[in-house]
C-alpha cells in the first residue's frame, strides 16, 4: 500500500487529467459548433441568393434583352428565365413545332392567344404545320378570353407559352431548340384610343418588342426564318385617296398606334437591308369575327345592345358617316397563310454575318375592299340580336380615329391569290352566333334557323382551315 502522500499526489493528478479532458471536450464542442454555424451561415446565404434570383429572373440571363423586358414591358412574363428549359420543356416545344405533312412549315406565332393569332395558329396546325405560340396574356382586355383561346389551341395540339417578346433569352432558347422555318409576328399593343392613356405600352410592344425579335432572328437563329408580321391599315393615317394602295404615302399617322406601326415598317426595312431577313408586313383592315377583341366596336356594341346600354356613333363635322373596311377573320387568315407560303428564305448568316444576297421585303394590304358606314354595321347587329340600340351620335373627336378606310388588295391578289369572300352581314351573323354561345346568352332570336343557345366554344371558331 502507498503512503498517504502518494495517494494525495494520485488524486491531484486525476483531478488535473479530468480538468484537461473537460477543456479538450469543451474545445471540441466549440469547434464543432463553430463549424456547424459556419455551414448554416453559408447555406442561409445561398438560400437568400437563390430567392433573390428567383424574384429577379433577368439577372440569370446572359442576354441584355431580359433586362429590357423588365424595364420596358408592363406585364411580367409568366414563363421567366428561371422556369423554362429542361428536357421535358424542350420535348413539348419540339412536339408542338413538328409538322405533320411533307414540307410542312414550322412556325413561331407571337401573340398566339390573341384574336388573329388564335385563328392563324389553329389553321396552320389543322393543315399539318408545326406551331409554337407565345403570349404575355396582358390585361389590355379580359385575360380570361385569351386563356380560353389558349385552351382551345391546346386541345388541337398547339403549345402557347406564357412569355413576352422582349424576353430575348427565351427567344434565343426557342431558336436553339427548334429550327423554325417561319415566324408569324402578331404580338402588339392594339387599339387607337388607348394610346392616349398608356403610350409607353405601345413603344414597349410595337417598337422594342419588334426590335427584340429581329435581333434574335438575325443573330441567333440558324437557319434564319422568314418573318411575316402584322402592320396596320392605320399607317395610312390622314390619307384621303381611296382605295388605299401600298404605294400611297404613310407619313401622316393620326395616332401613336399608327406611328409605332409605321416605325415598325421602317425597322423592318433596316433589318432586311443589314441582316438579310426575309420580311413581309401585312396591313390589316378592321378585322372582326368569332373570338374577337372586346375593345372593337362590333364586339362592344353587341354587349351594350344586349344590356340595353347606349352606344356612341361618330360622324364627321360635315355630317358624313364614318366608314370602315370591315374584314372577316377567315379572309385575314387566308392572307396570312398565303404570305407565309410565298415568303422566300432569309439570306443572312446566323450571328449577323455577311448576307448571301438581297432578301425579300414586302408589304400588303389585307382588307375586304367594301367600306361600310358604322351605322350600317349597327343596323345589322340590331336585326341579328332582335333588339334596337340606344344611339348617341357625336362628332368624331381627334383621338386617333380616321374618317374612313378602304383597301386596295390587288397586290396581294397577284402575289398569293388573296381574295376576300365574306360580306359584313354574313360575318356578323357568325360572330353573333359565337358571342351568344360563348357568353351563354339566350335572346329567343333565331340565326340560321336555330335558336341562340350556349354551345361548345369550338363552334364559334372560324372555318379558315
UniProtKB/TrEMBL annotation:
Domain NAD-dependent epimerase/dehydratase, by residue range, is: 107-344
Transmembrane regions: 36-56
GO cellular-component terms in the record? Golgi cisterna membrane
**Single GO term (MF):** UDP-glucuronate 4-epimerase activity
Q: Does the keyword Transmembrane helix apply?
A: yes
Primary localisation category: Golgi
The protein's matches in Gene3D superfamilies, at most eight in alphabetical order, are given as: NAD(P)-binding Rossmann-like Domain (3.40.50.720)
Q: Where in the cell is it found?
A: Golgi apparatus, Golgi stack membrane
A UniProt-annotated Pfam family = Epimerase
Q: Which residues form a coiled coil?
A: none
- UniProt keyword annotations, A-Z: Isomerase, Membrane, NAD, Transmembrane, Transmembrane helix
Q: Which PANTHER family match?
A: EPIMERASE-RELATED
Specify the protein name.
UDP-glucuronate 4-epimerase
Amino acid at each position: 500500500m502507498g503512503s498517504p502522500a502518494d495517494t494525495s499526489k494520485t488524486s491531484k493528478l486525476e483531478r488535473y487529467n479530468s480538468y484537461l479532458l473537460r477543456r479538450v471536450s469543451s474545445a471540441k464542442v466549440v469547434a464543432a459548433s463553430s463549424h456547424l454555424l459556419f455551414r448554416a451561415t453559408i447555406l442561409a446565404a445561398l438560400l437568400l441568393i437563390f430567392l433573390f434570383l428567383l424574384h429577379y429572373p433577368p439577372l440569370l440571363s446572359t442576354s441584355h434583352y431580359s433586362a429590357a423586358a423588365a424595364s420596358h414591358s408592363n406585364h411580367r412574363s409568366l414563363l421567366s428565365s428561371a422556369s423554362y428549359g429542361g428536357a421535358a420543356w424542350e420535348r413539348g416545344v419540339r412536339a408542338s413545332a413538328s409538322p405533320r405533312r411533307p414540307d410542312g412549315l414550322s412556325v413561331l406565332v407571337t401573340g398566339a392567344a390573341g384574336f388573329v393569332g388564335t385563328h392563324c395558329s389553329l389553321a396552320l396546325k389543322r393543315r399539318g404545320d408545326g406551331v409554337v405560340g407565345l403570349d404575355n396574356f396582358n390585361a389590355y382586355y379580359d385575360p380570361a378570353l385569351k386563356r380560353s383561346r389558349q385552351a382551345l389551341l391546346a386541345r388541337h395540339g398547339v403549345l402557347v407559352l406564357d412569355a413576352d417578346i422582349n424576353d430575348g433569352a427565351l427567344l434565343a432558347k426557342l431558336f436553339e431548340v427548334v429550327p423554325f422555318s417561319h415566324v408569324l409576328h402578331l404580338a402588339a399593343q392594339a387599339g387607337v384610343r388607348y394610346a392616349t392613356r398608356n403610350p409607353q405600352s405601345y413603344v414597349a410592344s410595337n417598337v422594342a418588342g419588334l426590335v427584340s425579335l429581329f435581333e434574335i432572328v438575325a443573330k441567333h437563329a440558324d437557319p434564319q426564318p422568314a418573318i411575316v408580321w402584322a402592320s396596320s391599315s392605320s399607317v395610312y393615317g390622314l390619307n384621303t385617296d381611296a382605295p388605299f394602295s401600298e404605294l400611297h404615302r404613310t407619313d401622316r399617322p393620326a395616332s401613336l398606334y399608327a406611328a409605332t406601326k409605321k416605325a415598325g415598317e421602317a425597322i423592318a426595312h433596316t433589318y432586311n437591308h443589314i441582316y438579310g431577313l426575309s420580311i413581309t408586313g401585312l396591313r390589316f383592315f378592321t378585322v372582326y369575327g368569332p373570338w374577337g377583341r372586346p375593345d372593337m366596336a362590333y364586339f362592344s356594341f353587341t354587349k351594350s345592345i344586349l344590356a340595353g346600354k347606349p352606344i356612341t356613333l361618330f360622324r364627321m363635322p360635315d355630317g358624313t358617316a364614318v366608314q370602315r373596311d370591315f374584314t372577316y377573320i377567315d379572309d385575314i387568315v387566308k392572307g396570312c397563310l398565303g404570305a407565309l407560303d410565298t415568303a422566300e428564305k432569309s439570306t443572312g448568316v446566323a450571328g449577323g454575318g455577311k448576307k448571301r444576297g438581297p432578301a425579300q421585303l414586302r408589304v400588303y394590304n389585307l382588307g375586304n375592299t367594301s367600306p361600310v358606314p358604322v351605322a350600317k354595321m349597327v343596323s345589322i347587329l340590331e336585326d341579328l340580336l332582335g333588339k334596337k340600340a340606344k344611339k348617341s351620335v357625336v362628332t368624331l373627336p381627334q383621338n386617333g380615329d380616321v374618317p374612313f378606310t378602304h383597301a386596295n388588295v390587288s397586290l396581294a391578289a397577284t402575289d398569293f391569290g388573296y381574295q376576300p369572300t365574306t360580306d359584313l352581314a354574313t360575318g356578323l351573323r357568325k360572330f353573333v352566333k359565337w358571342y351568344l354561345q360563348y357568353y351563354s346568352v339566350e335572346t329567343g332570336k333565331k340565326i340560321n334557323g336555330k335558336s341562340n343557345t350556349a354551345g361548345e366554344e369550338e363552334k364559334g371558331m372560324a372555318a379558315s382551315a
